[in-house]
Design goal:
It is a single chain. The chain has 297 residues and is α/β, with parallel strands linked by helices. Helices cover 41% and strands 15% of the residues. The protein has 11 helices and 10 strands. The strands form 2 sheets. The chain has an 8-stranded parallel β-barrel with strand order 1-2-3-4-5-6-7-10, surrounded by 8 helices. A two-stranded antiparallel ribbon has the order 8-9. α4 links the parallel β3 and β4. The radius of gyration is 18 Å and the shape is globular.
């Protein structure tokens, strides 16, 4: 028997605004659970949670896949019937050890191919210690990306460049806007390099809708991720992503824009948030399914 979801949304504690859509509901047809949202669950638990709730897709992360073992994880996912919407994450191409970074990314590409993920999300890396030449580091990243492109094409995996909010520019990603990501992506075959449209990271950008249209015209929208920008920001800003509807991002307008640009893939919910991680995973999935109906569709 499936667990009975709580009648309140997490982490807000507010009464649920709509009934929870269940298995077979067309509202769930494109909804994907990114594993990071239920960070304390194993891959097996996350797959089970998706199946119980009627979600048709899951976004995988390298660490829980490695914990299970790649071959076993791939078999579990195939047997479950779930789509794999993306694999997280590769990247970090800006550091001093290019060979190690490229080797790790090739392994990540292999993992994505084995799991059946259409794309590998790349958080490209920030400024190495002591460096201030942002444009130069961005070009270094692009040069290393070029080394990965033939391998990605061979394995049938699109590399999804993920621009991160500027607050993360120094330590995590020298790409801060979709425009910057597309300037790099468009140097390569669209089958090899696309972009991740993550609501948390791009909602603020005054050019975001223009750039979404540009990405769609080039067939470069690899993935769309839904979550919200909530205040106050925590001390660890990385863990400040909120449940859709709890913050300030107009996620529905972003979803409409990617659809109008030709994107037909899954809508993946990726949330880093300590309160959500502490909540029951089934309640988290029930909440994000309701919020999908309320604020995304």
């Amino acid at each position: 028997m499936s667990p009975v979801p709580s009648p309140v949304d997490v982490p807000s504690g507010r009464p649920a605004g709509v009934p929870t859509p269940g298995p077979g509901d067309p509202a769930l047809a494109r909804l994907s659970l990114n594993q990071a949202t239920v960070q304390r669950w194993t891959l097996a638990q996350a797959v089970d949670g998706c199946l119980r709730a009627g979600l048709p897709a899951i976004g995988t992360w390298r660490e829980p896949v490695a914990e299970m073992g790649l071959a076993k994880a791939a078999r579990l996912l195939r047997d479950s019937g779930l789509r794999v919407s993306s694999h997280c994450r590769g990247g970090f191409l800006t550091g001093p050890d290019a060979a190690a970074a490229l080797d790790d990314n090739r392994r990540a590409i292999d993992e994505a191919a084995e799991l059946g993920a259409p794309c590998l999300v790349l958080v490209v890396g920030g400024l190495p210690e002591g460096e201030r030449d942002l444009a130069g580091v961005r070009e270094r990243m692009a040069d290393r990306l070029a080394d990965l492109v033939p391998y990605a094409l061979e394995r049938g995996v699109q590399l999804a460049l993920e621009p991160l909010h500027p607050v993360f520019c120094a330590d995590r990603a020298v790409l801060s806007t979709l425009g910057q990501a597309l300037d790099i992506a468009e140097r390569f075959d669209a089958a090899a390099v696309g972009v991740e449209v993550d609501a948390y990271h791009v909602w603020w950008d005054p050019q975001v809708y223009e750039q979404i249209a540009r990405a769609g015209a080039g067939g470069r929208i690899s993935s769309f991720q839904a979550c919200d920008w909530v205040l106050p920001l925590p001390a660890d800003t990385l863990r400040g992503r909120g449940m859709v509807g709890d913050g300030h991002a107009d996620v529905r307008s972003l979803r409409r824009a990617v659809d109008e640009a030709g994107y037909t893939g899954d809508i993946e919910v990726e949330i880093f948030n300590e309160q959500i991680w502490r909540a029951d995973g089934h309640d988290v999935i029930a909440t994000l399914a309701r919020r999908h109906v309320q604020y995304v569709l």
